[in-house]
Specification:
The chain has 12 helices and 11 strands. It is an alpha+beta fold. The chain has 2 domains: 249 residues, no CATH class; 97 residues. Strands 1, 2, 3, 6, 7, 8, 9, 10 and 11 form a 9-stranded antiparallel beta sheet that branches. Strands 4-5 form a two-stranded antiparallel sheet. It is flat. It holds the Pfam family Cas_CT1975. This is CRISPR-associated protein, Cse4 family.
């Protein structure tokens, strides 16, 4: 088998009476596609739930060699300066903090929290910053001397210095989903995992949910009204999801270690299949596992199968699988891209495909194992 550059993960997930991802008005996010309004789950929402599933057996945090990271506008305040409080005079910290804020967030970052972008830094970078702050504070005789010492130190301090000798300077999350640092473009990390917004294969199914809260201890019989009256939106849907993994890019972001990259992909397949996005856990229990997951390994440019649902179909799993299979057959006949394929499915309708693809229906474990093995065979970055 030719080593694969790309993995493509297509999925179908069903959710009922849930509010998975809201917009600024509190309603479900939507997308107009093929002339029909669909319910949508943003890629940001999907990625956050996969990376924050800390208690899942396949959480990224359970991987050997995992390197953590934090995304915040308060990284310097909370993780660099605050540990020094009470150990060094306040006037020393007052000199240090604005210089470290500007180093991390840019020249105007000392104007307050709102002047900074939310930034992702890895534990190696944060540990480097904390060590340098401690050294500068410990070596200062007074605030005036520290001002000059910090100014001299800033000349050679940058993100490159922070990441020296670190295989995952921005942490594993940055290695997967990338990061952008406007104050130092050289610190940007290209994302090798590309995630599309998921959308329903059918027209939206939404309903306003009027509900009340009743006071269990209410004694005034003349007051028959509810204590609280509210309304929210609930939606149901069968969502098509699409993820692409650039294997050389992922391996490169993992310091060239294919074993770590393979473990990451193995766990990511589980997380995509099993971890649900969504709020309102207590009132909607929005949990579901993939009805279908098709994984392709190949070296040609990836292409989504979203066009299978450009014309909204019935909200039916069997029709959705048949539509996806038909779209794939047309692409195969036209482009002959030759990807290897495996899949899992709860549907009665099977996927078909050229024999050369090795198409086979597997369990989730077998599918994750097969996908991880493709990483080990992939070309280097």
């Amino acid at each position: 088998m030719t080593p694969s550059r790309f993995l493509q993960i297509h999925s179908l997930h069903s959710y009922t009476a849930a509010l998975l991802n809201r917009d600024d008005s509190g309603l479900a996010k939507r997308l107009t596609y093929g002339g029909s309004n669909r319910t949508r789950i943003s890629s940001q929402c999907l990625k956050r739930h996969w990376r924050m599933a800390e208690h899942d057996p396949h959480a990224l945090q359970t991987l050997g060699g995992y390197v953590g990271s934090f995304r915040s506008r308060e990284l310097v305040t909370d993780l660099v300066i605050k540990p020094l409080e009470g150990r060094y005079p306040q006037d020393i910290l007052d000199v240090l903090e604005p210089e470290f804020q500007k180093l991390v967030y840019g020249d105007k970052a000392d104007k307050g929290k709102k002047s900074r972008q939310t930034l992702l830094l890895g534990q190696p970078e944060l540990a480097w910053l904390a060590r340098r702050a401690e050294e500068l504070a410990a070596g200062a005789n007074d605030a005036k001397a520290l001002q000059k010492a910090v100014a001299d130190w800033r000349k050679d301090a940058n993100f490159k210095a922070m990441s020296e000798n670190a295989a995952l300077p921005g942490g594993l999350v940055a290695a997967l989903f990338g990061r952008m640092v406007t104050s130092d473009p050289a610190a940007n990390i290209d994302a090798p995992v590309h995630v599309a917004h998921a959308f329903t294969v059918h027209a939206e199914e939404a309903e306003g949910d009027y509900f009340t809260a009743v006071d269990d201890l209410k004694k005034d019989e003349s007051d028959s009204g509810a204590d609280t009256i509210q309304e929210t939106e609930l939606t149901s849907g069968l969502f098509y999801g699409y993820v692409v993994i650039d294997l050389p890019g992922l391996i490169g972001n993992c310091g060239g270690d294919k074993e770590i990259a393979a473990q990451v992909v193995n766990n990511l397949v589980y997380l995509i299949a099993e971890v649900s996005p969504g709020a309102k856990l207590g009132s909607t229990a929005p949990y579901g596992r993939a009805d279908l997951m098709l994984i392709e390994a190949g070296d040609r440019q990836p292409r989504s199968l979203a066009t299978a649902y450009r014309k909204a179909i019935a909200p039916d799993r069997e029709q959705a699988v048949a539509a996806l299979d038909g779209c794939l057959a047309k692409l195969d006949a036209t482009y002959e891209t030759g990807e290897a394929r495996r899949y899992l499915s709860l549907a009665e309708t099977p996927l078909t495909g050229p024999a050369t693809s090795g198409l086979e229906k597997l369990s989730l474990k077998a599918l994750a194992d097969w996908t991880a093995s493709r990483v080990k065979e992939a070309p280097d970055a």
